[in-house]
Amino acid sequence: MYLGVAPGVGKTYAMLNEGWRRHRRGTDVVVGWVETHDRSETAEQLRDLEVVPPKVLVYRNQTLLEMDLEAIIQRRPSVVLVDELAHTNVPGSVHGKRWQDIEDLLDAGITVISTLNIQHLESLNDVVTTITGVPQRETVPDTFVRASEQVELVDMTPEAIRRRMAHGHIYPPERIDIALANYFRVGNLAALRELALLWVADDVDARIQEYRHSHGIDGPWETRERVLVALTGSANGEHLIRRAARMAQRVKGDLIAVHIRSGDGILQSRPDDLERQRSLVIELGGIYREILGSDIAEALIQVARAENCTQIVLGTSHRSRWARLSAGSVINSVIAKSGEALDVHVISPPVRLKPEQPSDRVPRRERRPNWWGLGWLRRELGVISWRRQIVGLLVVVVAIPLVTLGLTSIRGHLPLGTVSLVYLLPVIAGAGIGGVGPGVIGAIGGFLLLNWYFSPPTHALAITDPRDIIALSIFLVIAGVVIVQVGLVARRSFDAHRIRSQAASMARTSSALLNLSDPLPDLMEEIYSTFLVDGVAVLRAVDEGWTPEIATGPHPPSSPKEATLSIPIGSDLLLVLDSARLRAEDREMLSIFVTQIAVAVANRQLREQAAEAAALAKANDVRTALLVAVSHDLRTPLASIKVAVTSLLPDDATWDLTAARTLLETIDAEVDRLNALVFNLLDMSRIQTGALIVRLQPVALNEIVSAALISLPPSDHQLDLEVPETLPQVQADPPLLERAVANLLANALSASSQHTPVRVVAGHQPDDWMELRIVDRGPGIAAVDRSRIFMPFQRLGHQDSDNGVGLGLAVAKGFIEAMGGELTLDDTAGGGTTMIISLRVAEPRS
Q1: How confident is the model over 334-375, as pLDDT tens digits?
Q2: Which of 149, 509, 700, 719 has the fewest Cβ atoms surrounding its Cβ within 10 A?
Q3: Does the pTM exceed 0.85?
């Protein structure tokens, strides 16, 4: 497969050259189909190769040529050359697509050499359409192309392709300028080239992985150094990334960062730190991955082998000694599982700031007291609502004294162990309702009451019997285990509820992304309502400050300094929030919102670019139409004037008065025609640029119609005027309205025959509107042309191509709308077209 970065880079040339090389070495090679596009250099490469004659097909009364699949299979060559893989076959062929024909050739045992442009790959179809603005209707599945034994890239710089185009080596001369101004722009070609290089590089990687897998090669191949850095979201993550990036740069290698999420899907690190580190990785030219796995060391090794990495960079562990002893060391596990082909680097943390030099990375209002080392208790208390905690505390405070009161009456009849089990009931009930806090209070209260009332000596915090010590200790252990388990269940329940809420929120945002043209406002509203923030905004960096892209809430931050949390979105955007209630779990959710916002912002920019491209395309269409129209309509009258003048100028010319007058009248008529053309062009230019000056005043329609008729050239057409002088005046600009009516009358007269009169009728309509109808009995306007009839440079339906450049109706509509009126089209009863001018009635004169 010869894969080209763009049309005209030489795919067919390379295919024919390769076929002839094999033919010269004795291989049976035939040409099944080739598109030379009348390029002599390409046709010369056929040399003495055998060409299978094409099949002749008739479709819609047209004779078309297609590749003769049956003839090639019957011929059974060793190699067949088939150009234009993405081609769509003529209806009536064996298959709808040429690549399906090639499948039959391969099944018949014939080797195929073919060509394809990168824009025809199915996976890149939407990307190419976005870049070039040209949809590709002929595509080939990537799986079919990747199944090729060899894929060779036919590359060429954008400048070289444009030079080939300018020299006429790709398109015929009449298509060169349009192609260079549209599809073959430097930016388009550079983007297509990058897509081709990336696709081929990915294909090479896939083939290497397939080869290693088929040959049982587990270790990485050092074809290129690839440095994998493991991120946990800790504070020294940026230090690790920069260190790994320097290592990769020294060996001209790639940087890959990976974060392993726990198997339960609950993020243990700070999402804003991870997002900042992800942005740093991308800024340094690396790749960021997030992997779900319960065994961190095993997941890291799997990622390293899948990415063919040669080095792993880890940071020193910040876990406690007890955590390392109980759960094992990730660093030791990675080293043990890395084998001989992976180098493991353990990087020590950077030098910390002194305590008296606090980092101002975290805003002041986000700093919280550390609860004297009881941060875990604060987190657990925050899981359950305060209302439930108060209810649980009331249960403990009320139930434990009641239990004590009831048991003291039978004190001495029950052993301390049995009494302690009774005390566990209110402790469990309080912990189940209110969580850890009421449970801890209940356990401590129960222990003290058991000691005071039931452990000799009573009414004293002293224990003399060793068995009582054991019983009370067991009570505390059981109470502690129950409280911990209740806390874990509450935490899991809270996390599950939070994840469900996040899933619902993300479903809403995903729906907004899919169904709304601009989902960014809905995303911001979702953040505002989900996290109950005081304000949220997306800021864009401009010069040395910030400007809001979009903001929501009563107090949205206008700069990062005013926010409690700032999350980068790309290189120049920042999501800022003002709230003191955000937790780590909320920030995890925010990181997902950031991705959605980045997509929404990118889509907004793409829409703006698409609108600009559409405007440019429209301007190009108008320019092309203008050039075509003007080149014709200027040349014709100028040629007539030239002929008449050259006939009158010679000294030896003898013309009688009648002939000379005829020539002079021709010159006068053609000058008037040129003058009208220039006026229409100037008028259209003023309308499109907004430079049209309108001076409204009361005018009489009968005067306007009379002036418009006088401005038209003499004609033998009949006119039927019904514009009474008694009609109210309308609010209009007299010169502009006169030009508009004249254009419409000229259009109606040219559509009508001399035997069918053109009617001009005016009448008073409800709501103080006046209508002026210009009715012709011509062939009318086809329904398919209605949407284009008032567009510039359109000569539709009955209009003769020699009569104007198609600006008359466009100018008339522009003038009338500028005066606050309307110009509409209707069918004439019995055949023809009716143009309706609607204008407001003027105020009575004082």
Answers
A1: 888 887 668 899 988 765 544 444 444 444 344 444 443 444
A2: 149
A3: no
* Integer Cα distance of 667 and 663 in angstroms: 6
What pLDDT is attached to residue 357? 42
Please give the Cα distance from 442 to 426 (Å, whole number): 7
Give 817's contacts (C-beta < 8 A, 6+ positions apart): 823
- What is the rounded distance in angstroms from the CA atom of residue 107 to the CA atom of residue 156? 34
Supply the pLDDT for residue 266.
47
Beta strands in 622-699 (DSSP E): 697-699
Per-residue pLDDT tens digits for 188-233: 899 899 889 888 887 887 777 777 667 666 555 555 688 999 988 7
Encoded tokens for 747? 């259009």
**Structure-token pair, residue 481:** 């285990």
At 433, list the tokens: 């309702």
Distance between CA atoms of 775 and 744, rounded to whole angstroms? Answer: 10
Question: Quick count: other Cβ atoms within 10 Å of Cβ 787?
Answer: 8
**Confidence check: pLDDT of 846 > 50:** no
Which residue type does 313 have? V
Distance CA 549, CA 561 (A): 17
Domains by residue range for the chain, with CATH? 2-214 (3.40.50.300), 226-347 (3.40.50.620), 375-493 (no CATH), 691-840 (3.30.565.10)
| Distance, CA of 746 to CA of 712 (rounded, Å) | 7
CA distance 664 to 649: 12
CB atoms within 10 A of CB 725: 8
Sheet with 769-775, strands from edge to edge, namely 719-722, 758-765, 769-775, 833-840, 822-827
Give a three-class secondary structure readout of 319-332: CCHHHHHHHCCHHH
The answer on pLDDT for 184 being more than 60 is yes
Conformation bin of residue 259: beta by default, left when phi > 0, alpha when psi is -120 to 50: beta
Residue 149: pLDDT above 80? yes
Burial of 589 (0-12, 13-18, 19+ CB in 10 A): buried
pLDDT tens digit sequence for 410-433: 777 778 778 888 888 888 888 878
Cα 791 to chain centroid distance, Å, stands at 31
Question: HSE-up of 680 (CA within 13 Å, CB side)?
Answer: 28
